[in-house]
Write a structure and sequence with these properties.
Blueprint lengths: L8 E6 L3 H11 L2 E6 L22 E2 L1 H10 L3 H7 L3 E5 L3 E4 L14 E5 L2 H13 L4 E4 L2 E8 L4 E8 L2 E6 L2 E4 L7 H7 L7 E4 L4 E8 L10 E4 L9 E8 L3 E8 L12 H5 L6 H6 L3 E2 L4 E3 L4 E4 L11 E3 L5 E2 L7 H18 L7 H24 L12 H19 L1 H11 L11 H8 L14 H13 L1
Parallel strand pairs: 1-2, 1-11, 2-7, 5-14, 11-20
Antiparallel strand pairs: 3-6, 4-6, 8-9, 9-10, 12-19, 13-16, 13-17, 13-18, 14-15, 15-16, 19-21
Helix pairs in contact: 1-4, 1-8, 2-8, 8-9, 10-11, 10-12
Length: 469
């Protein structure tokens, strides 16, 4: 360092998952970053400890794809080179709405989602991030507590092997996921509890990987049958084509109708969904794995941005702020967008300046709110989902969403606007703009589709496999 040059800032990121890695990227232009991870991260596309939802279907919506590319230019092409696939929505999506309608497919789509296993996504991003010499990964290290006061966090107390030490930092980011202990850490500093809300539809997931049958390994669409919250138990499922010519199939059911880990019951359950198309497609496909189940699917939101007092030097991102029912696929996109918002704040304010951490928390809350509203707008209507019954506003919004979905299933212009919101490229308020209202209430509407809009070629590919079986 030359004489008179300001010393580099220091930052600590708690958690080496997707949010933690992306947060380290945002911080690295402003500080030397240490990522604290309690486990040993895999050295390739393999399962990561403490991430049960990774075994189930993941779709990175186009809003998340754009955020990821903004943070790590070229990363989407890297993922595609490793076997991931860009899926154009609605060209490459066959989807049945919760209210029962099948959506039409487009020849010209403007929303490109990313399809791959979570293991591949994490591995490619992790390698890319850790190539940065300004970022250091410290594994097998547990964070014990925050250091500092109610006014400013000055670092963290960590335990590694058999020793404890303190790391000082100008900014600490908690990206430790659903199991975050930030509420306890903040109370230890003398701060009051933050408000929380939990909406748990009681969804259980069961997933299995299949070898894509026949000629369906190349270019087959996502097939999605969504659960209807007005029909309990709610059941749904999705076929997600992933790398290696495989299908990741996830089935879901709410209380009283959850799928089991029984291999022999998997196809039978798929055939009981609101439409049997998923069961019909996998009936003669070759399974590559046993069934894996998960029941940790509650939507949980912590309103850190509303805290009356917030310490400088500390912010919370990702699932540590809000965890969502994975069926909606918005968690990764919301996290990536929150990190983009964090980077914008850091480009405008020194990370040690008073108020910077609070600005980060407020900016990160906006994409979180968008994802939260999309998830809770459905799940809150399942029996026993929340101690707080649906509010009048939530009921009115849900009724309007049903109308918007119906318009989307009958009018491609309405569907494109609906997809702007579902893809997290626009906030839910976009649906209340005059052009969408006109399409919902006055627009021309085609007849509803009678069944899933698979092409003749797609059907033949699956049928040929069935005949060989």
């Amino acid at each position: 360092m030359s004489d008179g040059a300001a010393p580099r800032r220091t930052a600590v990121v708690i958690g080496g998952g997707m949010t933690g890695m992306l947060a380290a990227v945002a911080l690295a232009d402003h500080a030397d970053v240490t990522v604290i991870e309690r486990d040993v991260l895999p050295d390739g596309p393999r399962p990561r400890k403490g991430l049960p939802q990774a075994r189930h279907a993941h779709v990175l919506w186009s809003g998340g794809v754009k955020a990821l590319e903004e943070l790590l230019p070229g990363s989407i092409d890297q993922l595609v080179d490793h076997g991931a696939r860009k899926a154009h929505i609605m060209t490459d999506l066959v989807s049945k709405a919760p209210s029962g309608q099948w959506f039409r497919r487009f020849n010209h789509a403007r929303h490109a989602n990313l399809l791959c296993s979570r293991d591949l996504l994490d591995a490619v991003i992790r390698v890319r991030v850790l190539q940065d010499q300004r970022i250091t990964l410290q594994q097998r290290t547990e964070l014990l507590t925050l250091e500092g006061t109610a006014d400013r966090v000055s670092g963290v107390r960590i335990r590694s092997a058999h020793s404890e030490t303190t790391l000082t930092a100008d900014l600490v980011i908690d990206a430790s996921g659903r199991a975050s202990r930030a509420p306890a850490w903040l109370q230890e500093l003398g701060l009051p509890p933050v408000s929380e809300r939990k909406v748990d539809a009681g969804v259980g997931y069961a997933s299995r990987i299949y070898r894509a049958p026949g000629s369906t390994a190349d270019g087959f669409p996502i097939v999605n049958v969504q659960a209807d919250p007005r029909s309990t138990p709610g059941k749904g499922g999705i076929i997600t084509p992933i790398e290696g010519g495989r299908w990741l199939v996830t089935l879901a059911g709410t209380r009283g109708g959850q799928p089991t880990a029984d291999n022999d019951a998997f196809v039978a359950f798929a055939l009981t969904l609101p439409h049997p198309i998923i069961g019909e497609l996998i009936r003669h496909a070759e399974p590559e794995t046993d069934v894996i189940t998960t029941h940790s699917t509650a939507n949980k939101r912590r309103y850190y941005e509303k805290a009356r007092h917030w310490p400088d030097g500390f912010a919370v991102l990702g699932d540590a702020v809000a965890g969502y029912n994975p069926v909606y696929g918005h968690g990764l996109s919301a996290s990536a967008q929150s990190v983009v918002a964090t980077r914008r704040i850091l480009r405008q304010h020194d990370l040690r300046s008073p108020g910077t951490a609070r600005r980060i928390q407020k900016a990160a809350a906006r994409p979180v709110d968008n994802a939260w509203n999309l998830a809770v707008g459905q799940d809150v209507f399942y029996p026993g989902a929340s101690d707080q019954p649906p509010t009048r506003t939530e009921k009115a919004l849900a009724a309007f969403i049903d109308k918007a979905v119906d318009a989307g299933s009958r009018n491609p212009h309405a569907l494109r606007l609906l997809l702007d919101v579902m893809s997290m490229e626009a906030p839910p308020a976009r649906l209340l703009m005059p052009d969408m209202l006109a399409l919902v209430y006055l627009g021309r509407k085609k007849p509803l589709l009678a069944g899933p809009p698979l092409t003749e070629q797609e059907r033949k590919g699956a049928e040929a496999a069935a005949l060989r079986a």
